[in-house]
UniProtKB/TrEMBL annotation:
Protein's name according to its UniProt entry: Carbohydrate ABC transporter permease
Gene3D superfamilies xref list: MetI-like
Membrane topology, from the record: Multi-pass membrane protein
Phylogenetic placement of the source organism: Bacteria, Bacillati, Actinomycetota, Actinomycetes, Kitasatosporales
Family per record: Belongs to the binding-protein-dependent transport system permease family.
Classification via Pfam families: BPD_transp_1
Length: 289
C-alpha cells in the first residue's frame, strides 16, 4: 500500500524588491559650487573682456565687449611676438632635456640595484623644496663664470633643472610597475638594455612620460624668476618678462597687455586640453603606485 500524500503548505509569496531610493544632490551645494567657479574664472573672463575692447583702462571698461575689436591682439603680436617665440624655444628645449635625462634616470632608479638609490630619491625630493630664488642666485654666480648669462642655452638649462626632478619622480613610479618578466623576456629575445628600455619600458610608461614632459613645458613656459635673474637684454626675453616690462609702458591702455596675457595662456590651454586624459592617468597612477 502506498502511504497517503502529505499535504504541503502553500509557498509564501515573495516580497517585492524595495524601490531604490535615488539620493538627489541638494541645490545648495550646486549653487555654492557655481559661485566658487565663477569667482575663480572671473579673472580669466576679465582678461579676455579687456583684450577685446579698444583703449580700455582700469577705470573705464565695460563689463561686456559689446563692440569687440582685435586691434589689441595685432599690437600685442607686433610687440610681443618675438618674446613668445623665445618662450617657446626655451620651453621646448627644457622639455627635451628634462625628458632625455629623467627617463633613463627613472628606469635606473626603478629597476637597477644602485648603491645609494634612496639617497638619490631623497635628493630629488629635497630639490623641490628649495626656494627658486636660492637656485637663481647660485646659477647667476655659476653662469657669470661660464658666460651663460643673457643666453638662450642658459635659460633652457635653468628651467630644465626644475623639470628633471619632478619628471624623474613621476616616471619612476610607472617604470617600477613594469613587470620584470616582460623585461627578462625582451633580454632573452636578444634585446640589450637600451633596446629594452626604448622598445618595452617607454611604451608601457607612456602616461607618465607625457605627464612629466607636459609639466616640464609648463614650468619653463611660466618661468619668471630665472628670466628676471639670468637675462637682462631684450634679445633673450621670454613672454613673462615681456608682459612685466609691458606693464610699465601701457599704463593708460590695458588692452594690449591683456591681449598679450591671453596669447601667453593659449599654449598651456591647448596642451592641457589635448593631453588631459594622459595627465589624469599619469597623476592618478603616480599617486597610487
Amino acid at each position: 500500500m502506498t502511504a497517503p500524500a502529505v499535504p504541503t503548505a502553500p509557498a509564501a509569496p515573495t516580497a517585492a524588491p524595495a524601490p531604490r531610493t535615488v539620493r538627489r544632490r541638494p541645490w545648495g551645494s550646486t549653487v555654492i559650487a557655481l559661485v566658487i567657479l565663477a569667482v575663480l574664472l572671473f579673472p580669466v573672463y576679465w582678461m579676455v573682456n579687456v583684450s577685446l575692447q579698444e583703449h580700455a583702462t582700469s577705470f573705464s571698461t565695460d563689463w561686456f565687449p559689446f563692440h569687440p575689436s582685435f586691434a589689441a591682439y595685432g599690437q600685442a603680436l607686433r610687440d610681443q611676438g618675438g618674446h613668445l617665440l623665445i618662450s617657446l624655444a626655451v620651453a621646448l628645449g627644457s622639455t627635451l632635456i628634462s625628458s632625455l635625462v629623467a627617463a633613463p634616470a627613472s628606469f635606473a632608479l626603478a629597476k637597477f640595484r644602485l648603491p645609494g638609490r634612496g639617497v638619490l630619491l631623497l635628493a630629488a625630493v629635497v630639490t623641490q623644496m628649495i626656494p627658486g630664488i636660492v637656485i637663481a642666485n647660485a646659477l647667476y654666480r655659476a653662469y657669470n663664470g661660464l658666460g651663460l648669462l643673457n643666453s638662450l642655452p642658459g635659460l633652457i638649462l635653468a628651467d630644465a633643472s626644475l623639470g628633471i626632478p619632478f619628471a624623474m619622480l613621476l616616471m619612476r613610479s610607472f617604470m617600477a610597475e613594469v613587470p620584470d618578466a616582460v623585461i627578462e623576456a625582451a633580454r632573452v629575445d636578444g634585446a640589450g638594455r637600451v633596446r629594452t628600455f626604448v622598445s618595452v619600458v617607454l611604451p608601457m610608461s607612456r602616461n607618465g612620460l607625457i605627464t612629466g614632459a607636459l609639466f616640464s613645458f609648463l614650468f619653463a613656459w611660466s618661468d619668471f624668476l630665472f628670466a628676471l635673474t639670468l637675462s637682462s637684454t631684450d634679445a633673450v626675453t621670454p613672454i613673462t618678462m615681456g608682459i612685466y616690462r609691458y606693464l610699465g609702458a601701457q599704463t593708460e591702455n590695458w588692452s594690449p597687455v591683456m591681449a598679450s596675457s591671453v596669447l601667453a595662456c593659449l599654449p598651456s590651454v591647448v596642451l592641457l586640453v589635448l593631453a588631459q586624459r594622459y595627465i589624469a592617468a599619469g597623476i592618478s597612477g603616480g599617486a597610487v603606485k
